[in-house]
Write a structure and sequence with these properties.
9-stranded mixed sheet, alpha+beta, disordered N terminus, 5 helices, single chain
Length: 199
Amino acid sequence: MGTSTLTNELRQDAIRAVTKALEDSSSLSTLSACASKTLDITNGKVATLFPLGAPGRVLPGLQDGYADFLLDPGLILAEHIQDYLCSGDHRVAVFPDLSFDAASPAINRMVGRIGIFNREVYHVLVAEGMEIEQIRQIERQAGSPWLTICYMSQAKLHRVIENPRFVLTEMDVAEIADKTDAIAVQAYDGEGYLMWRKI
């Protein structure tokens, strides 16, 4: 694993990449649309989960200002999600499913908690019983070929997620966006992630 100092130009590139991911997914995810309107992405720190040996420019690292080269960025992301979920009450990690809608038979085979808003599918993780391998499995099933996003939020959804399948309201989706502390966005041709954190 190595580190490299971050220039302001590279930090701005990373901020633009996170902003673009939210905009690109807004037509398929009301949560992404709300987050792109609600959150000031420029007022945050951006970190990188960068695959070891990946070519190209170095983008910002796990601590704002560094790039960390990792053997398995997906494992490190899962550990970050687990740490976040266990760090306080009312914490959720939410992956919008950009490949399937509520009418798809595929959602019957999916593991974990599934929230439905209109026809949109959201994979919702909570701390209770959430092991690293389960987080990785949900991340893989929620991922699309072109983009995976995870919102880490202090939204108080525990009243609606007692069942494995549940309905999200417009207020629930807005609360997830409004109370988002961090966002992980797929990067490096799907091999790594950019991790934005609210300051």
